[in-house]
Amino acid sequence: MTKHLTALAAFAATTALASGAFACEVTLRSSDTHPDGYPTVSAVQYMGELLEERSGGRLCVEVFHSAQLGEEADTIEQTQLGVIDLNRVSLGPFNNIIEETKVFSLPYIFRSVEHMHNVVDGEIGQEILDAFADHDLIGLAYYDGGARSFYNSQRPITSIADIEGMSFRVMQSDVFVDMVDALGGNATPMPYGEVYTSIQTGAIDGAENNWPSFESSGHYEVAGYYTLDEHLIVPEVLVMSEISWNRLSAEDQELVRQAARDSVPFMREQWQAREEASEELVRAAGVEIIEDIDKTPFIEAMVPVYERHVTSDALRALVTRIQETE
Ligand code: GTR
């Protein structure tokens, strides 16, 4: 009888597993502004696969891409409140909330993407992730966001003089407002989802972003000039709501942390491939690309931005350590 029951139970368990009835005790809802197939979206989906596999199907992730859960600044608040569990966002929109994140958002703070990797993969990167804990968030991992450059609908920008009087959308961070001001332009902080129409209707002249965002947002259709001044290399970040985090056991928290870490190399590969593909598509569409820009005057123009935002000994020390990192 017992034997019979055990066999039956085993059968039931197999069928239940196969039909997914035992799957996903916890489903973490994750937000992303980008469309399906974008490297950040794929990376969090991949992280979810790792998590599901390693938890025996108990812990799952569902990615709500294409800003289905809202624009970044709003989703950050929702994540702090525990309405959204996971959020993949640029570090930029955190600047006005978590002071330490400003150092990674300073123009030209990173000499190259490789330099950025060396910093975020090391102690400084971890210290800044840890700073999220004071703001109801758990910093899990950094993803790539390439280098950001200016694009506009009006004219080729070949030097700072061309920026004079032009208006650019920036992410909602005072650092970026001051950055555009320092170049003689007018900055308009606005949600990502409003940029296309704003350029199209002439409400603003342009914006700034990396190749994959310039392409996937369609902004290249309305802004025909892209100047590779590469003023920002802002990493992306994957954060979790502390409220959702505290609902997990210590073991499950570690599974989440590790899956996030393990999604980073996957993300970097995806990113590189997408950067190339996006660049190819934008060039083929006939956008005028202004390359070989002399960055020195741009870098020099950023002194007031540093003076304005690097205001404490702690921030100054972070900037020096970043600059000293190979
Ligand atoms: C993208 C970034 C997004 C978002 C967007 C923006 O490069 O991946 O998270 O911050 O830029 O400019 O709002």
Task: Provide structural commentary.
The protein has 326 residues and is α/β, with parallel strands linked by helices. It has two domains: 19-145 and 234-278, D-Maltodextrin-Binding Protein, domain 2 (3-Layer(aba) Sandwich); 148-233 and 284-324, Bacterial extracellular solute-binding protein, family 7 (D-Maltodextrin-Binding Protein, domain 2). Helices cover 45% and strands 18% of the residues. The protein has helices at residues 2-19, 39-54, 72-80, 113-120, 123-131, 174-182, 195-200, 211-216, 242-246, 250-284, 296-301, 303-309, 313-324, and strands at residues 26-31, 59-64, 86-90, 137-143, 148-152, 167-170, 186-189, 206-209, 225-232, 236-241, 288-290. A five-stranded mixed β-sheet has the order 2-1-3-10-4, sandwiched between helices. Strands 8-5-9-11 form a four-stranded mixed β-sheet. A two-stranded parallel ribbon has the order 6-7. Helix 6 links the parallel strand 6 (167-170) and strand 7 (186-189). It is globular. The termini are far apart. Beta-D-galactopyranuronic acid is lined by residues 33, 72, 89-90, 92, 145, 171, 192, 209-210, 213, 236.
